[in-house]
Amino acid sequence: MKRPRVCILRTDGINCDEETFYAFEKAGAESQMVHVNQLRGQKKQLADYQIMALPGGFSYGDDVHSGKVLAVELTSFLKEQLSEFVASGKLMIGICNGFQVLVRTGLLPYQNLGNIEATLTTNDSGHFECRWITLRVEQSHCVFTRGMAGSLIDIQVAHGEGKFYANPSVIDQIEKNGQMVFRYAGMDGKPASLYPANPNGSLNAIAGICDPTGRIMGMMPHPERYVEKTHHPNWRRMPVNTVPHGLAIFKNAVDYARQM
Predict the structure, then answer these.
(1) Tens-digit pLDDT profile for residues 102-114
(2) Shortest CA distance to 144 belongs to which of 83, 198, 202, 213?
């Protein structure tokens, strides 16, 4: 069976591209590193890929705001390509900085390019958070989490601006539309509003959302950092048949793309 092709978007400051590349390859896809200038110069076309991934890092040094410069670049120079890619029913994932970019382009939460409805702002703790946390997978339309609803997963966070914030009406709509994908959770498995279980103070404990179709997803934690059992700090204490929690997210995307 032909492997789906994944565009791993790169630009100055992105530093989780190799991990994301590896995660999709392990899930059965054909990953390709694509610099944003290659898309702008039409040396490569988004139409040639089934999945687009915006990895974590600090694109353009997060000048002005996290993800802002890359978001402006995408909406200014690649709006037509992005619109056609989304309209064709293909998949898009933004991780950490990539989530920040998707929100600032307007692709999340409502797939409305150029219209910013939410933001990811400075952590309430006032400092960079880099550690393992627990996520609750919610029931949603999201392609990336099919079959995972109700489960608790261990994932690493690494961000300084991860607090999801939006007007109450926007958050209510996300909840009602089935766009809530991940929440930070406490030891009891319930949504966590308080630090440290909630590492940034996100409203409604939001760690990840999708668009109304479920094909575009953004999340602050890094699933690409847990696609091998040995990635987890307590892997020696786990059952032999333990499946890395992050891997399922990439496999769901690849399985979906194979049917396109």
Answers:
(1) 999 999 999 999 9
(2) 213
